[in-house]
Amino acid sequence: MSSKPITLSLELSGRYGSIALMNRDGETITSHPLGGKREEDDVFPSIEKGATSLCIPPGEIELVAVSIGPGGFTGLRTSVAIAKMVALASNATIISVETAIVTVQQANRGDGPFLVISCVKGNQFWLSTIVKKDGNWNCVSN
Question: Residue 71 carries which DSSP code?
Fold first, then answer.
């Protein structure tokens, strides 16, 4: 048996979100639901479709990785609420992810400082300053 936990990942801080599911074999399915639609939900159908495709039974999710921003408040609040619901139903562990820090870590360009622009909407956006100090990544967002 593989040591990989069955994982759900939620990043809903902007207009276009990202949902990923991974099974024990490491197979992953990603979808990008459109946020801000009051008349219908794309998030739960995306989770259900991914779980079905990967043969993940309800209640089997072991780990939920959820973005805590920076980003739009409604999307972050929604993703944290979904993470808590899934964890309650499946006894999964929740880990919080600072999206701007992950972006910088994946670029693998040193210790910074870096500027990350995210959640662009019209002429507004989140600007995060990321720097590694004493071995820890730090994020300040405006």
Answer: S
